[in-house]
Amino acid sequence: MLISVVTPTLDRASVLPLMHANLLGQGVELEWIIVDDGSVDETSDLVSWLAWQSAFGVRYLRQPHEGRHVAINRGVDVARGELIALLDAGDLVAEGALERLLGHWPGGPRYAGVLGSSTGGGAAAPRPFPAAAATRPFPVAEATWHELTYRHRWTEPTWGLVRTDLMRAHPYPRVRGYVPDSVVWRRITHPYLLVDEPVLLSRPAEHTPFAELATGLARSHGLALTHDLRWLRRRPLWFLRSAVHLRRAVLHLGKESMPALPRTGRALVGLSRPLAWALYRRDRKR
Q: Which residues are listed as membrane-spanning (predicted)?
């Protein structure tokens, strides 16, 4: 089965050779789709050289600088594989991880994909996934994104294979600015198979000022406080935190960016105002 690895990149030519070598050792049939989001370094020439010598297909797409989310959509649109692996520039797949994930994939329409855990390079593996059903011979559970986030209170990053048809059906919104992945994942209602092992070695996240992320965070937290409140009793502090960050983002963007919320969501945002204001003032001083 063909796996389409989609990598959005912007001026990260230096990391691509190591990523290519990493993918060569995965032991699966794959194509690597690199979507260049307006790089001004040597990305284009380097990808041509990698494609010339590669044992698997390397496809290069270039676009004006529109953001990671738009680049992902474009890569997904042209993907030939049944499953997608989103691999950010600089991240590495654990040895044999794609082959192991694919070994757990049953095919068919029931599941959205199969995921393992993501950990920083050289760091200890995150805590185990929720306990597997006793009937399964390997440590794997299944859960929707909402169940994993709210019922199991999962906060560590996950990574793996997602059905191409579902990603095409639920693209990232084409808006300016940062778009969190959760905006897409929450719209996919199928459960995932969860494999209890680290599969991605991710590079440490670079610090980005809150103000630069405000548009995407307002969207993400607004969706949570509009559509996910049935889970409020499971994670009340999580929703209060979401309200704080929504209000904080709106202070950066202007009050017209506040989404229309149900009564409970509005009440949470009201409670959040003192802390949100304090965080906003701290943002402005940095």
A: none
